[in-house]
């Protein structure tokens, strides 16, 4: 049985529950929210569609109902408003997370925890510090969404299947993130060489506009919030992908936010690097061969996050 508990049933939490159900990733989903009526309504709405999905029991509950959960997903917190940065949310959402942690860990001490609420790197760090859960079972969704945005944009740029685009966003899920362009490739062809390798195509390919791509990745969230008030589809798909990989016996490499313990010279901060996940935890980290400048950018991202942590009451 794959049991997943979701704390927070706003747009992100409820969309994760819906996507998990439709994809057949979980056999039981518990939805918990301080607004019990909202949790009941969301669970009922999803459950009534389950005759046409793989079998899944979706229901609202309390922390006690999280017993024996394989995965707990935390989406609780104040949502980002138009013009607000993720880091502006820090202290408010840290306080919310600190109130949740002891209540959920009491009933699900053996679960793997996925932190989705923003600022995700700060909250992942706080959960590591206050929960008592081993670090290899505390995962922030981190730059997995940024990585998806990058791969999606590059696939549009070159009219190629997204799965043929290999690229990563590392560091903070936010303004100090970085794209290691030295490693970006399409079907193993370095990204800047790719247009020269195309034969017999009627399409023309523009020179890659790196600043435009980086701006697109960093500002997509704010652009979506300005347009529709919230982001929830792409992040929900990303979180469901994490769940699927955690439940596999085969390692999958994902850009996730985890506690750094000296990798790239970075310690005591959570940010995204490439991690292998399977069998319910982070199995190991993959140290990508970054250039000197890329490694410097990653360290700067760590310093930015460390500065916020130092200003936050944990």
Tell me roughly what share of residues is in helical segments: 40-55%
Terminal CA distance: 35 Å
Q: Which regions are unreliable across 5 or more consecutive residues at pLDDT < 50?
A: none
Give the averaged pLDDT, no decimals. Answer: 95
Strand order of the largest sheet: 3-2-1-4-5-6
What proportion strand?
15-25%
* Order of H and E elements: EHEHEEHEHEHEEEHHHEEEH
If you compute it from the alpha carbons, what radius of gyration comes out, rounded to the nearest whole angstrom? 19 Å
Shape: globular
Please count the beta strands (DSSP E, at least 2 residues each): 12
Structural class: alpha/beta
Tally of contiguous helical segments: 9
**Major β-sheet, in short?**
6 strands, parallel
Task: Characterise the protein shown here.
The chain has 314 residues and is of the alpha/beta class. Helices cover 40% and strands 19% of the residues. It contains nine helices and twelve strands. The strands form three sheets. The protein has a six-stranded parallel β-sheet, sandwiched between helices. Helix 1 (11-23) packs parallel to helix 2, helix 1 (11-23) packs across helix 8 and helix 3 (90-107) crosses helix 4. It is globular. The protein starts with a strand and ends with a helix. The relative contact order is 0.14. The model has no long low-confidence stretch (mean pLDDT 95).
